[in-house]
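Appendix B. Raw example, untouched.
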Amino acid sequence: MFAPTPPPPYYAVIFSSTRTEGDDGYEAMAERMLSLAARQPGYLGAESVRNAAGEGITVSYWRDEASIAAWKQQAEHLQAQHLGRTRWYAGYQLRIARVERAHGGPP
């Protein structure tokens, strides 16, 4: 469930979205993007959830900003971004943050 990240610092790309009705190829593309991202230099992992109302959040973790920029310009990812804007998302927000500290449990 949790991405196996290294000790900080590293970066998090936080993608929050609300889906449109129906699948229309969304699930297949989402799986393809996770598989493709995992092969990108600098990719560290991802965590993703979506509720029954179609609201979701995916956080992907990256070694550095250059890795994020390269992923953003990857050809298949560009196609998925276009389809997301025109077909799959009623709304979305993308945030990029530098992770300075991280810890977990159980206590």
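End of appendix B.
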